[in-house]
């Protein structure tokens, strides 16, 4: 089996003549947690939206599982970008039931994903009454319903308290053992370094570093070096 699950080749996206992502070539190893890092506005969310078909690339290619990406590949990709898509008047189980019916999945999958994200005991509590951390975990449960090989998470710890962050960190770290590769986007270095295997740092829409994730001050120094170089190039 190919050790690479997803690659981008010279991926670019422009809006009204302005390049948001430029010649981005990422390599995502299978069964790892890959951190896509960069300051706000670096092009992270735009890149993830191209990987999930929400946006069409202006130029370049996305390769998934050894072939050029097409919409059928969404069957193997789970996504949580921005706010979890919840029906706040429904329970966790009811939210998942709506999706299993729509996707033609077995009802048994509901208990499986609730167990994975540790939401089996929420009972009749409606999603609107959940803490932010619980909502994020339910959003991930929804993304897991279709047995994805790749899970894409955009800034999943935003707004979470320390307990919620710790729970989500543990959950994300467990996915490679289940055969799920994770692409995790964030600008919070201290959170990412504790869960990722490899990183890509982008700034100004361009890739400044890709490889093993250094720790602590080394990661911070590398991040600032990439961002600083990008800003100088833009002046």
Automatic annotation (TrEMBL):
InterPro entries reported in the protein's UniProt record: AAA+_ATPase, ABC_Gallidermin_ATP-bd, ABC_transporter-like_ATP-bd, ABC_transporter-like_CS, P-loop_NTPase
PROSITE patterns in alphabetical order: ABC_TRANSPORTER_1, ABC_TRANSPORTER_2
Keyword set includes ATP-binding:
yes
Specify the signal sequence span: none
Q: Which GO terms describe its molecular function?
A: ATP binding
Give residue ranges for domain ABC transporter: 6-229
Membrane: is it a keyword of this entry?
A: no
**Key words of the record:** ATP-binding, Nucleotide-binding, Transport
* Superkingdom of this protein's organism: Bacteria
| NCBIfam families named in the record | galliderm_ABC
Report the sequence similarity comment from the record.
Answer: Belongs to the ABC transporter superfamily.
> What's the name of the protein?
Lantibiotic protection ABC transporter ATP-binding subunit
Give the organism, scientific name. Answer: Lysinibacillus pakistanensis
């Amino acid at each position: 089996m190919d050790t690479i699950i997803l690659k981008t080749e010279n991926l670019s996206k422009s809006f009204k003549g302005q390049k948001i992502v430029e010649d981005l070539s990422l390599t995502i190893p299978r069964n790892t947690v890959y951190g896509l890092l960069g300051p706000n506005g670096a092009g992270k969310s735009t890149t993830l939206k191209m990987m999930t078909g929400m946006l069409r690339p202006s130029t370049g290619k996305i390769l998934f599982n050894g072939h050029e990406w097409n919409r059928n590949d969404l069957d193997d990709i789970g996504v949580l970008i921005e706010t979890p898509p919840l029906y706040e008047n429904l329970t966790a189980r009811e939210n998942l039931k709506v999706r299993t019916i729509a996707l033609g999945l077995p009802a048994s999958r509901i208990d499986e994903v609730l167990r994975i994200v540790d939401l089996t005991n929420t009972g009749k509590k409606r999603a609107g009454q959940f803490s932010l951390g619980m909502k994020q975990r339910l959003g991930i449960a929804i993304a897991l319903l279709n047995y994805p090989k790749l899970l894409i998470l955009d800034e999943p710890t935003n707004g979470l308290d320390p307990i919620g962050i710790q729970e989500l960190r543990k959950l994300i770290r467990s996915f490679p053992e289940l055969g799920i590769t994770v692409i995790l986007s964030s600008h919070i270095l201290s959170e990412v370094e504790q869960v990722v295997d490899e990183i890509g740092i982008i700034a100004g829409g361009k890739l400044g570093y890709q490889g093993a994730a250094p720790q602590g001050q080394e990661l911070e120094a590398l991040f600032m070096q990439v961002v600083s170089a990008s800003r100088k190039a833009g002046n």
